[in-house]
Amino acid sequence: MNLDPIQSKIRELAREQEALAAEKTPSVGTGAAGRTSFEDVLGQMVDDLDSMQKTAGSTIQELAGEEGAAAGDVAKKMQEADAAYELMMQIRHKLVDVYSAVEQHNEKT
To answer: By C-alpha distance, which of 30, 3, 27 is closest to 90?
Structure first.
C-alpha cells in the first residue's frame, strides 16, 4: 500500500500551517515565497483520493470482466483506496475541530 504521496502532502501541509501560525497571516493561493496554499494542498489530496478510488473501481471491473485482474491486485487497490479515504476523513475531522476552535475564539473577542 503506497501512501507516500499523501503522507508527504500532509507533512507539507503541517509545515505550511506552522509557517502561517508564525506569521499570523492567512495564505490564499501561492504566497510570495512560492509556497503552496492550504487550499492547493488539500485540493491535490482530494484529487489523489479520487484517482485511487477510480483505480480501485476499474480494477474491480477488470476482475469481473474479461481482462482478468488478479484478486490480490483488487484487494490491494481497495485497501489503498480505503486507507486514503480514512486518512482524508481524519483530516476533515481535524479541520472541523480547528474551525470550531477558531469560531469560538472569534466569539470571545
So the answer is: 3
